[in-house]
Amino acid sequence: MFNPFQSIADLKKLREQAIEIQRQLQAEEVDLDKNGVHVKMTGNQEIKELTVDGKEEMRLIEVLNEAIKKSQEIAAKKLAQMGGGLKELLGR
């Protein structure tokens, strides 16, 4: 028998796990220096620092972070469409 309250509990658990993973990713950092360019970004793909030949590029940081966010939104929509979204994840 289908229990709608179990579905809510499953969704809450998934949400809590996603939030915890997001916190962990935010704490991770990647530093890369190559060809006069230095990038520091978090594990959740947010650019924190960007320098080109020693000069910080704040305009590029803003634009790149916006582009990354939009690409993540597109990916999330595609994943939601795939296989019926969360219903498939929950085995319903």
How are the SSEs ordered, and which strands pair?
Blueprint lengths: L3 H24 L1 E6 L2 E6 L4 E6 L2 E2 L1 H24 L4 H4 L3
Antiparallel strand pairs: 1-2, 2-3, 3-4
Report on the architecture of this protein.
The chain is built from 3 helices and 4 strands. The protein is of the alpha+beta class and 92 residues long. A hairpin with a 2-residue loop joins strand 3 and strand 4. The radius of gyration is 18 Å and the shape is elongated. The model has no long low-confidence stretch (mean pLDDT 85).
Give unreliable regions as ranges: none
Structural class: alpha+beta
Largest sheet: 4 strands, antiparallel
Elements, N to C (H/E): HEEEEHH
Strand content: 15-25%
Give, in spatial order, the strands making up the sheet with the most strands: 1-2-3-4
Report the principal-axis shape: elongated
- Count of extended strands: 4
Radius of gyration: 18 Å
Features:
alpha+beta, single chain
Short description:
With 92 residues, the chain is of the alpha+beta class. It contains 3 helices and 4 strands, in the order αββββαα. It has one domain (4-89).
